[in-house]
Amino acid sequence: MMGFQPVVLWTDLLLFGLLGCIVLAAWSARRSEPMRAAWGRVGASGVGMTSLTLLLIFVLVGLVDSLHYRERLEPAGAEAAEARKAQLSTEVRSALDALAEPLRTRVEKTYSAPLAWQLFSKQTVEGKDGTQHREFPRLKYGGAGLQYPEQDLAGDVTGRIAIGLAAAAGGWLVLAGVVVALVARSRRVPFGAGWRAVWRGKGGLAWRAMLLTLAGVLLLVGPITALATEYHVFGTDKVGQDVLFLTLKSIRTALVIGTLTTLVTLPLAVALGIVAGYLGGWVDDVIQYVYTVLNSIPGVLLIAAAVLMMQVVIDTHPEWFETAAERADARLLALCLILGMTSWTGLCRLLRGETLKLRELEYVQAARAFGVSTTRILARHVLPNLMHLVLIALVMDFSGLVLAEAVLSYVGIGVDPNTISFGTMINAARMELAREPMVWWSLVAAFIFMFVLVLAANLFADVVRDAFDPRAS
Amino acid sequence: MFAYIVRRLLYAPLILIGVNLLTFALFFVVNTPDDMARMQLGAKRVTPEAIERWKVERGYDKPLLFDGAAEGTQKLTHTIFFEKSLRMFVFDFGRADDGRDIANELKTRMGPSLAIALPTFVLGLFVTVCFALLLVFFRASYLDFWGVVMCVAMMSISGLFYIIGGQWLVSKVWHLVPISGYGAGLDAGRFLVLPVVIGVIAGIGGSARWYRTIFLEEAGRDYVRTARAKGLSELQALFRHVLKNAMIPILTGVVVVIPSLFMGSLIYESFFGIPGLGSYTIDAINSQDFPVVRAMVFIGSLLYIVGLILTDLSYTLVDPRVRLE
């Protein structure tokens, strides 16, 4: 039995830390009436719950991909006893790698189209009689079980899709049954009435939208899983890796960049914005000066400069990192830091403006007249009244950051080239567009996954903004 | 107003000095010139003499901020900070790593950058404003609803997709225009059509939605109702009254980028092979040509500050109520 040792990368730690913070925040928000009302509006919105369901699925994939470990190598032969304690594989894997083991390990020679059984390019093969001729060789794994692929492929694929669809439908029915039963129980009505309540959107949450979204997702996931055991559903890339696997791995990178960046943005923007707006005077001048300076440097250039410098630091200190994964992770984290450092100015300015308004309101002035200390006023009276803006900005920033990652990776200042991300995928696939016939699948797969993620985030951001911004109609 | 502008103009160098200090810290303090030399010359087997030669060739052998060994004012001028950072204020950018004069490069590359950025900007603004007004004209109808849905979908698509998809469809499948490249004079036109059109389309989603909210807010005001009551048609009310009054929030976002058009666009220029400042910057980033990156940072912030001042001025032009103090 192979042992393993868990590895906690910095980004893992922060991701799970962030998750904990969100859970805590949700717990404390339960007690606040306005927060409950606002989240209730989000929960009742069909679009909101559809996008949230999609986002949660992405988050789930990302979190599973954040449980890292290193395998313990089994020492061979006689030295086994003494070498027992330590040989760790240098390769850091994640739980997702383990779950998608067949996808990860079944590497072909080079490109192959989605659901193909042959390689995409001709290669010289030696026949049985020793003659050499050029043909499209069969894939090592994709469609390997088919005896006569030309005739059997269509039938096999249809069969697998049917099995996948059936499994998805079954899974969905079970899920829907559980949801309806829960709703029925909480409303103390029989099952049938519970079903009607869910269908008519009377379950409190927009259950119908969630169930429909889940149905859609399952109907896609089912057949894809059924096919993925035998074929490369989205084809393979230049070095023969399964594109489906690459897109799944990219999700974590996108999530890390979209969320961890805010860990930097948030404290800076909130603290400086509030202090500048409330205290005014020279403090305000200094803070304004700092963000005007940062703002005036074109974003990409500032990021480029910082990333180039960070690269030099990482390159000159190889001893800091034990494995390649740790180095790539450090670079990813540094990228988040840099993106955060360059993107807090907008939110800071917004919060400063709002604080200027709040400062003049009666309740704040009353607190001041009672002699409440500045820090207490800021923490108790100003900050809570700005939280909706912070929340809206956070959700809105997410999609922008995910899109930015792709562009930055293209410019060459994004994530480590060895980190799998949408940006690196697009960048690698871009080179092959000139090929005839075209290799389109990895590009299309990356764009579609990115589109769904960003679209869900954008829609969710809109719903959150409408629910939390009192000025919105 | 005059006093205000003078104050803003005095504030500008202050900001530029801040930018300068920041880039200086990034490029020379975080990593010493020795680090850079080692990386440029190849990390492993590099002799101290080679590093020294590299530094002398590029003028990086001086102290960072203060030279105790020099005489008089040279204590301050005989430093990297003065030579490499402060010189930029008189547009002396020095030489790129390949030995070419950066200022000269900037001059020749500004034209192509502007040739793609300016039409994209003007056409983009026109198209998005028209589209947003159209949505407002049909507000609270299915057309409006699906228009907004389309905007959200379009802004969720990666900008790279528009470029790659556009190049593939227009150049590879339809063979309408060359896929990339640039020509002298009017010949450049056929190379510019595609990037401009793609740039406009890629920008529609986000900005049209934003303009729509601004227009909607304005269209609900009393004076618009009065205009309608006087018998103006909806189109007249929109174009004569709403558009004019919605200019202020639009100007904030728009005027500030006008000077930056000189910088061109990183992505578009490199995808379409246009020899402007954007592709120059990207090449510099990829070859780690730090003098060029520093120069571009300086130019970029200078143009941004000009944009800020222009924004302030444009307010007073479109809205007499705004007084600059």
Q: How big a fraction of the residues of chain B is strand?
A: under 5%
- Round the Cα radius of gyration of chain A to an integer and report it: 27 Å
- The average pLDDT value of chain B, as a whole number, equals 85
What would the principal axes of the Cα set say about the shape of chain B? globular
Q: What's the β-strand tally of chain B?
A: 0
Assembly type of the chains comes to: heterodimer
**Order of SSEs of chain A:** EHHHEEHHEEHHHHHHHHHHHH
Spatial sequence of strands, sheet with the most strands of chain A: 1-2-3
| N-end to C-end Cα span of chain B | 6 Å
Q: Uncertain spans of chain B, ≥5 residues at pLDDT below 50?
A: none
Beta-strand share of residues of chain A: 5-15%
Distance between the first and last residues' Cα of chain A: 61 Å
Structural class of chain A: mainly alpha
The gross shape of chain A turns out to be globular
What class do helices, strands and sheet pairing of chain B give?
mainly alpha
What is the typical, i.e. mean, pLDDT of chain A?
86
Most extensive interface between two protein chains, with residue counts: A-B, 43 and 47 residues
Report on the biggest sheet of chain A. Answer: 3 strands, antiparallel
| Biggest sheet statistics of chain B | none
Characteristic terms for this protein:
heterodimer; A: 473 residues; mainly alpha; three-stranded antiparallel β-sheet; two-stranded antiparallel ribbon; 17 helices; 5 strands; 67% helix; 5% strand; B: 325 residues; 15 helices; 70% helix; globular
Task: Describe this protein's structure.
The complex is a heterodimer of chains A (473) and B (325). Chain A has 17 helices and five strands. With 473 residues, chain A is mainly alpha-helical. In chain A, helix 9 (243-279) packs parallel to helix 12 (324-359), helix 11 runs antiparallel to helix 12 and helix 12 (324-359) runs antiparallel to helix 15 (387-411). The longest helix of chain A is centred in the middle third of the chain and has 39 residues, at 149-187. The chains are: A mainly alpha (473), B mainly alpha (325).
